[in-house]
Design goal:
The chain has helices spanning about 15-35, 75-95, 115-120, 140-150, 195-210, 215-225, 260-270, 275, 290-305, 305-320, 325-330, 340-355, 380-395, 400-410, 415-425, 430-440, 445-455, 460-470, 475-485, 495-505, 510-520, 525-540, 545-555; strands spanning about 60-65, 70, 110-115, 125-130, 170-175, 180-185, 235, 250, 375. The chain is globular and about 80 Å long. The strands form two sheets. The protein has a seven-stranded mixed beta sheet, sandwiched between helices. The two termini are about 40 Å apart. The protein has 23 helices and nine strands. It binds zinc ion (ZN).
């Protein structure tokens, strides 16, 4: 099935021994710093909160399981069920997608709440689920659906409302947070955690690890294809006029089903294949879920009718090739830029949609560890999580961000992410406040990470980032920042274990990719350096990293050899 692998530079054997030594130094460094007397500050800082947090920020807890950190204000038993489903669905999805067991390190953060802002402001990913208790008959075709469901075509809004329409429209979100953490937002309605929604968002996370920046149609098509593993059981009665049962009588959730909800979404609205291929990832609220549905059909068709081509396309995505070019090379007959290319794809998809049957679905079981620990979550930490999620939905409209950060810091002046974010906006230094925060919270990895980013003194920067890595071995960002710093040092190869770990934790991390490029260039491994440079540019490396990238080109310009 999907070939899994990272194109990273092999770790020299000496790197392991070195990293052990360095980590020992980190432990010493952290202990020494934690016990050190606080430095006299150049000015007195008032650190008293002057504003009470809003009610919806109270009563949250954090639950840590093997692969997730769930932040929630829901009752314990609801979260226990959520953790069980998250772990189970992650294990089952991996088992059904990959030919062999692959350990993916790190944890995914999950924000789960019934708070209304989760549904309205924070959930950008809006799509249809494939089934519900009232929409569970298998093998629905468009003709049946048109006769039994109301399709919103404006003038005919008086038609009867069917069960495979609005009920199935859901919202959630997947994004990478300011702290570099893969994060899922799950609005929870009526105390019920919808397994299909969880399956969809977990699939987004897995796709971001398995494939390098896939295009929107692939991202949503893949997630919708996988989500049906979490669907409600489907009824599969014998065809009218016969008692001959075809396949299972009741079809439990499986990867790759064609459930009635997704079929109805397709029949109700349509996007051409060419439009789906060039979709920018935004759905219109007037025509909900239509690109998601068409993307699902495209992926489903590729999986069943063009499986060899799909494997090749996915292999190229995993190897960070340009997706448009990869599509044109693997499926030249469906190149939307060639005359007739989009029309042929449309024709093939329409034929497939009309005769959808006899396709393959997969339901391999997998064990999962569902144990977890619980701790309380400070309202200011909840506030910053929600703020980050909101920012992920609307990064272009920033007028709300400054006032919201001010509110956050009035509630807790030493909330470290807020301090550093506010300083970024104001173009001021957060150093004094961050140092003050560390006096109060010496074991908060976020404080050390933010301090490491803000410090200008090389030694202090190094100790802060080493401490962040030590306190949170799951943090890709802490590893990546440390790798970038070491890559600029006299011994750039010292950065290798940290850059490698950061890329394992977060293949989408531009900083770690820049560090890998720089290390490779220093070691005269120019092919790898140029490859990593290319990847870093595609990942959109931050402006402050361009000097490091320029150095790579300086050493390894393609014309050099
Ligand atoms: Zn999605």
């Amino acid at each position: 099935m999907i070939k899994f692998g990272f194109a990273v530079i092999p770790l020299p054997r000496s790197g392991c021994a070195f990293s052990a030594i360095l980590l020992a130094a980190v432990v010493l460094g952290a202990a020494a710093l934690a016990e050190e007397k606080p430095e006299p500050l150049s000015e007195e800082i008032v650190v008293k909160g002057t504003r009470a947090p809003d009610r919806y920020l109270l009563g949250w807890h954090e639950y840590r399981s093997q692969h997730f950190v769930v932040d929630s204000d829901l009752p314990d038993w609801t979260v226990a069920e959520l953790v069980r489903r998250l772990e189970k669905l992650r294990a089952v999805e991996l088992r059904n997608l990959l030919a062999e067991d692959v350990a993916i390190p790190g944890r995914v953060r999950v924000i789960a709440s019934s708070a209304s802002l989760l549904f309205s402001d924070l959930a950008r990913d809006r799509f249809f689920t494939g089934s519900s208790l009232r929409c569970q008959t298998y093998q629905m075709n468009c003709r049946w659906l048109v006769n039994n469901e109301v399709f919103d075509n404006g003038a005919s809004a008086a038609f009867r409302r069917g069960a495979c329409t609005d009920d199935l429209f859901v919202a959630a979100n997947y994004f990478v947070s300011r702290l570099g953490e893969p994060t899922i937002v799950l609005p929870v309605a009526g105390g019920r955690v919808h397994a299909e929604v969880i399956a969809h968002e977990v699939a987004h996370y897995l796709a971001s690890v398995l494939f390098f920046q896939p295009p929107p149609w692939f991202r949503e098509g893949f997630a919708s294809f996988v989500q049906t593993i979490g669907g409600d059981p489907l009824e599969n009665p014998p065809p009218t006029g016969t008692h001959i049962q075809r396949g299972e009588r009741v079809i439990e959730g499986a990867v790759g089903l064609a459930p009635p909800g997704l079929m109805a979404a397709l029949c109700r609205d349509h996007v051409s294949a060419g439009e789906a291929l060039t979709w920018d990832g935004e759905e219109s609220s007037r025509r909900p879920g239509r690109y998601h549905a068409q993307s699902w059909l495209l992926y489903h068709w590729l999986w069943n009718e063009r499986s060899r081509g799909l494997s090749e396309f996915q292999r190229r995505l995993a190897n960070a090739e340009n997706p448009d070019l990869a599509w044109r090379q693997v499926f030249p007959e469906f190149d939307p830029k060639r005359p007739g290319g989009a029309a042929s794809l449309d024709k093939a998809l329409l034929r497939y949609e009309m005769n959808l049957g006899g396709y393959i679905y997969s339901r391999r079981k997998a064990e999962a560890n569902t144990r977890y620990t619980e701790s309380t979550l400070a309202p200011s930490d909840v506030h910053v999580l929600l703020l980050d999620a909101r920012y992920s939905v609307q990064p272009q409209k920033l007028d709300w961000l400054g006032p919201e950060l001010t509110k956050l810091l009035e509630e807790e002046p030493l909330q470290v992410v807020g301090i550093s974010w506010h300083a970024d906006l104001d173009r001021t230094s957060p150093l004094l406040l961050l140092r003050k925060a560390i006096e109060k919270l010496p074991l908060d990895w976020r404080a050390w990470l933010m301090l490491g980013r803000a410090e200008e003194d090389g030694e202090r920067k190094l100790v802060a980032l080493q401490t962040a890595v030590k306190l949170n071995p799951d943090s890709a960002l802490a590893h990546s920042e440390l790798a970038l710093l070491l890559a600029r040092s006299e011994h750039p190869s010292d950065a290798l274990p940290f850059a490698k770990r950061a890329v394992e934790l977060a293949p989408w991390d531009a900083g770690a990719t820049v560090a890998l490029a720089q290390i490779a260039a220093t070691l005269n491994a120019c092919d790898e350096a140029i490859e990593m440079h290319k990847r870093a540019v595609r990942l959109g490396a931050r402006a402050d990293l361009h000097a490091q990238l320029d150095e790579v080109i300086g050493r390894c310009a393609p014309t050099r050899n």
